[in-house]
Write a structure and sequence with these properties.
Low-confidence stretches: 1-17
Radius of gyration: 19 Å
Shape: globular
Order of helices and strands: HEEEEEEEEEEEEEEEEEEEEEEEEE
Strand order of the largest sheet: 18-19-20-21-25
Structural class: mainly beta
Number of strands: 25
Helix content: under 10%
Distance between the termini: 39 Å
Length: about 325
């Protein structure tokens, strides 16, 4: 009996130790997906797939409403634009919104900009009519010139809002297509190109700015079905968040300008991320959104009232 008790205590301590640092915040049925870090205030912007509301969450887990507007339906990927003091946000009506409307469901694709200091909406870019088909603005990124690139998870295209505000379809490829979700995360690489992931088949794609319609699959020894948020770290490596039951974060490097890549680091399975979606850097650490979006697919689950941002501790892969 004492031996069994010892094993139980040991297992409990191991599980506790495996839990990496996290910031917990309470918001009823919020269900976060997108995240962006605000270096000015050492806080995060986080959006809700249920209501589109955008909140700020500080390092202590205090959440405050930054912007709310029922017309947003749902909020997804977002990025801070320090050059123009803006927060860029992907919004639309693809799946879980409490404000879902037949007129906008899987049709609406809007990119809004908010003033970083006061949350005032500056612009609303309507991309809905640029490409025939269903639409889901899932993620966006900015290049060094201030151009914004947006993935559409329901149509095989990437849109661009250039630095002068002109909008249009920038790239189209069959490599962007998925049976349900196609393109998801996207990030700008300082080498002068974009990296995106296909959530459905798990491929990593390199898109050159001079030939955007000729995207190339980055050769990797394995694929990442459920690939979601991306970022480029200080080493120029790709940090990739994967859900769909894997629920881990990977760091990949390349020795040939991203013709191929390999996994150099990964989080441990014992870290137990909960349907991780996107990530952001703050104070030298990578924080990952535990979205719990899987709960929305099961009506028998009591809706969560607490969510978290969890630090990704990336360990070298042997």
């Amino acid at each position: 009996m004492k031996y069994l008790l010892y094993l139980a205590v040991l297992l409990s301590s191991q599980l506790s130790a495996a839990q990496t640092e996290r910031i917990n915040f309470k918001l009823n049925e919020f269900y976060p997906e997108g995240i962006a870090s605000n270096s000015k205030t050492n806080s995060f912007f986080i959006g809700s797939v249920k209501t589109g509301t955008i909140v700020t969450v500080d390092m202590n887990g205090e959440a405050k409403i930054f912007y709310e507007d029922r017309s947003l339906k749902s909020s997804f990927g977002m990025k801070v634009d320090t050059m123009r003091n803006l927060l860029w946000v992907c919004t639309g009506d693809p799946n879980y919104s409490v404000y879902a409307d037949p007129a906008t469901h899987k049709k609406s694709i809007h990119i809004v900009t908010l003033d970083l200091d006061n949350g005032k909406k500056i612009q609303d870019h309507d991309l809905s009519g640029l490409y025939a088909g269903k639409h889901f603005a899932n993620d966006l990124t900015l290049d060094n010139a201030g151009n914004v690139y947006i993935t559409d998870s329901y149509s095989p295209v990437i849109y661009r809002i250039d630095s002068k505000g002109k909008i249009g379809v920038w790239a189209e490829s069959e490599l962007f297509r998925g049976l349900d979700i196609g393109l998801n995360g996207i990030t700008w690489h300082p080498g002068g190109f974009l990296i995106a992931v296909n959530n459905g088949n798990g491929s990593i794609l390199k898109i050159a700015t001079d030939v955007p319609n000729k995207a190339e699959i980055v050769k990797v020894s394995n694929f990442f079905p459920g690939a979601d948020g991306l970022l480029i770290n200080a080493e120029g490596h790709l940090v990739l968040v994967q859900n769909k039951g894997v629920n881990k974060v990977f760091e990949l490097g390349s020795a040939d300008n991203w013709k191929s890549a390999s996994i150099v680091k990964a989080t441990a399975s014992a870290d137990m991320f909960h349907q991780p979606s996107t990530c952001a850097q703050q104070q030298g650490k990578i924080y990952v959104v535990n979205s719990k979006l899987n709960e929305l697919q099961d009506p028998g689950i009591t809706p969560s009232k607490e969510f978290s941002l969890q630090v990704a501790v990336l360990r070298p892969v042997q």
